[in-house]
Structure formats: C-alpha cells, structure tokens
Amino acid sequence: MNNTDLQAYLDKIGVAQALDINIELLFKLHINQQRKLPFENFDIVLGKGVSTSERDIIDKLVYHNRGGYCFELNGLLLRVLQTLGFDARPLLGRVHLSGTPLGRTHLFTLVTMGDESGSSMLALALIRREHHYHLFLIKLFVCTTMYRNSWV
What is the pLDDT of residue 10? Predict the structure, then answer.
C-alpha cells in the first residue's frame, strides 16, 4: 500500500492523529473501519465475482464508496496494519455459530505486539453485528485461544 492510498484510507475512516504503533491505534483503526466501511456482498449476489487483489480492494473500498465482504475488509485492514509497521499476518478461520463447522472461509488478522518476554497475540475479525464492541472483544479472546491451540 502506498502513502497516498494509506492517507486516503485514514481520511475515509477519520483517523488523523499521530500514528504510534500501539494497542490504542490498533483498536481505533479497527473500530473506525467497522463504522465507515460496511459489510456488503452485492457483487457476489449479482454474480460479478470479487477480486482480492490489493489494488482492486483499495479502489473499491477507499475510492469508490463501497463496502466489502470479509476477505476485502480484513484484507484492507491487514495491508494498512503492515504498512504502518504492525507485525500482522493473515489467517484463515471458521465462523462457527451452530451445527457442524464449515470450511475455513473467513479471513482473520493476527497481530503480535510487545517484546519476546511480554508479547501478546490478537486476532482481529471484522464481523458486523448489533453489538460491535462486545462481540469484537469476545472474538479477540476466542480467536487468540484458538490460535494458541492450533485450531485456526
């Protein structure tokens, strides 16, 4: 992600402060993106298909006032975090609500912060529900636990 695209993204989600790499910035980016970039799957429903290339995602979500589905939204957040200097990498996971678990069809972002003696891992997932923050914190705990037990 280049600096022009990064600045356009930050402007779009309303983050204009100094960007120190810390947990507060991580939460601010996550919450603001969730508020400004909606989940939508119009292209899938219309049979148009979805590109997961970095350029296509940035154009669609940042410049064309569209939302996206998990691979687009979480893919964009991943690129932003990496560009800013966070230690972030993608993971595939499941959204398991009931019944038999399905395949790994959801993109999560694993962020590692801290030094070797006190590092912590946070798995971020943009899943829109009524109670954004409550579910966000649950997802952090559940995903982190699952990752450490190699279930993701």
Answer: 95
